[in-house]
Design brief:
Shape: elongated
Radius of gyration: 28 Å
Oligomer: single chain
Strand content: under 5%
Helix content: 25-40%
Order of helices and strands: HHH
Number of strands: 0
Structural class: mainly alpha
């Protein structure tokens, strides 16, 4: 029989055997730092602890709907406080499409061009 200590199996609470959860606020700070700075996960400052733990918590919260519930609650609160103001801006200079998205010719032989016949022209007898 296994003791929970050192086991790689996740318990029902999502914690790995015997470990303690890092405070949720610290994990949220680490996630915010990662996305604000654009740093790679592995380069998170040491004060946030093991980056894998932060990443795994982010993923777990995404899968179980936590982020959606937080966002919904924040929007509802802002709406109730009449403090909700949406602004969307798109800079077209950075919008790009892959060459295939623009209808570029794919590799291989060109298809034979079809001849077009006018359909609305007068009928020839």
């Amino acid at each position: 029989m296994h003791s929970g200590r050192g086991s790689n199996r996740c318990s029902r609470t999502g914690r790995r055997g015997g470990g303690r959860w890092r405070d949720h606020r610290e994990v949220i700070d680490a996630i915010a730092c990662k996305f604000q700075t654009g740093t790679q996960w592995a380069h998170l400052p040491e004060k946030y602890g093991n980056w894998r733990g932060v990443y795994n918590r982010l993923r777990m919260w995404a899968v179980d709907g936590t982020w959606e519930r937080v966002f919904t609650a924040l929007v509802a609160q802002a709406d109730a406080d009449e403090d909700l103001n949406w602004a969307v801006s798109v800079d077209s200079t950075i919008v790009r499409a892959h060459q295939h998205a623009a209808g570029a010719r794919k590799k291989g032989p060109r298809p034979a061009s079809r001849t077009t016949t006018p359909s609305a022209g007068p009928a020839g007898d």
